[in-house]
Specification:
Helix content is 83%, strand content 0%. The protein is mainly α and 84 residues long. The termini are close together.
Length: 84
């Protein structure tokens, strides 16, 4: 059974989980928009810079997705713990 403070905390956690899920959805969508097919016609140093930029972008998006997923999961765990 939860107390009044626990109910307020549960509401805050639920809102946080919703916000995290929304941000996670947007990041996952952004990750799918990063080009994966070689469509650039650049060569030489410009090509290297383009490839490096895409690799860094993918890496940053993946790291952000992993962090948000962990935060959302931790929030869900906190909610379940309060409901016990």
């Amino acid at each position: 059974m939860t107390m009044g403070g626990d109910l307020r905390l549960l509401a805050v956690l639920a809102e946080q989980r919703t916000d995290l899920s929304s941000a996670l959805w947007r990041l996952e969508r952004a990750a799918h928009l990063v080009p994966t097919v070689d469509t650039a016609q650049w060569q030489g140093p410009a090509r290297g810079a383009y490839d490096l930029a895409l690799a860094r972008l993918r890496s940053s998006l993946t790291a952000a997705i992993n962090e948000l997923t962990a935060a959302r999961n931790a929030t869900h765990t906190a909610e379940r713990t309060l409901l016990r």
